[in-house]
Amino acid sequence: DGFCDIASELKYEGIELHNIKNAVFTDKDGKIFDYAAAATIRRLHEKKLTVSCIDVIADPTEDENACVAEIKETVNAASNLHIPYIRLRASEKDGEKAKAAVISVTEKVLSAAENAGVTLLIETTGPFSDTALLRELLEYFASDNVAALWELCPSHFEGKETPETVIKNLGAYIKHVHFSDAEKTSDGLEYRLAGEGGLPVKDIMTALRSVNYDGFISLVWDPKWCEELDDLEIILS
Question: Does the global pTM surpass 0.85?
Answer without folding.
Answer: yes
